[in-house]
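Async update (no meeting this week)

Hi team, since we skipped the sync, here's where things stand on the single-chain job. The sequence we agreed to prioritize is pasted below, unchanged from the tracker. I ran it this morning and attached the output directly underneath so nobody has to dig for it. Comments welcome in thread, and please keep replies under the output.
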Amino acid sequence: MEKIVSYFYVLYCKDTSFYGGYTVDLARREKEHNTGVGAKYTKPEMRRPVKMIYAQAFDTRSQATKAEYAFKKKSRKKKEEFLKIKGVKFPINLSQTCVVASRLKNVKEAELNEKSKEF
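Output:
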C-alpha cells in the first residue's frame, strides 16, 4: 500500500498576499483555489488567480497542519524570510515553478520530485 503524503503549501495571491494550507494533492488543491472553492480566503476574485510557490511534504497530516499553523502566525516580513530561506525567488514571478521540499523519512528528494512532476 502506497503511503499518503501530506503537504503544507503556500499560495501567492493576485493581491500579493500569501495563503498557507494543507493537502494530499497539490495540483487538485491549486485548481480548487483558482475556481473559488478552495477556501474563504481565496474565494474573492481580487485574490485569484493564485500560484502555488512552495510546498513541503510530511509523513503525517499532523506535521503538515502544524507547519501551516506556524506559517499563518508569521508576519508578512517573516513569511517572506521563510520562503526565501526555502528557495522561493523574490520578486515572485508567476511563471516560476513551485519549490517542493521534503520532511519525509526514507524518501529521497528525487523520488518526491518525480511524484510531483505533474504538478
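Quick observations from my side:
The CA atoms of residues 16 and 47 lie 8 Å apart.
The chain has one domain: 6-109.
Reply here if anything looks off.
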